[in-house]
Amino acid sequence: PVTVRFFAAARDAAGTETTALALQPGSTLTDAICELSGQSDRMALVLRKCTFLCDGVAVRDKATVLQAHQTLDVLPPFAGG
Q1: What gap in Å lies between CA 60 and CA 18, rounded to an integer?
Q2: Residue 63 confidence (pLDDT)
Q3: Kind and range of the H or E run holding 42
Q4: Rounded distance, CA 55 to CA 44, Å?
Q5: Phi first, then psi: what are they for 21, rounded to 5°?
Q6: Where does the pLDDT of residue 62 fall: very low under 50, low under 70, confident under 90, or very high at 90 and above?
Q7: How many CB atoms lie within 10 A of CB 16?
Q8: pTM
Q9: 39 CB-near residues (< 8 Å, 6+ apart)
Q10: Sign (positive/negative) of CA torsion 1, 3, 25, 37?
Q11: Helix/strand/coil for 10
């Protein structure tokens, strides 16, 4: 499975800090987002605004294939400075 860590508003929408996402081999970031979006309308809304890190590296191409045992961080926009 891929470990998904949620931060800030994404954590609130998910109701947890982490979850394990069982994906089929060859699944992409888009597949993971679709799977997570199915949890709730609120989660789907938050995910549209998020950026993602895979093992600490920013992932902008949603066609990126995820591998088992990777960590996917879900980061909503942060305010402040």
Answers
A1: 21
A2: 97
A3: helix 41-47
A4: 22
A5: -110, 115
A6: very high
A7: 11
A8: 0.91
A9: 14
A10: positive
A11: helix
Contact 66, 32 (CB under 8 A): yes
Q: What is the percentage of the chain residues whose pLDDT exceeds 70?
A: 96
pLDDT band for position 79 (cuts 50, 70, 90): low
pLDDT in tens, 24-61: 999 999 999 999 999 999 999 999 999 999 999 999 99
- Amino acid identity of residue 46, one-letter, is V
CA separation for the pair 29, 2 (Å, rounded): 11
Provide the strand spans (E) within the chain. Answer: 2-6, 18-21, 51-54, 57-59, 71-75
Q: Which residue from 6, 57, 67 is spatially nearest to 31, judged by alpha carbons?
A: 67
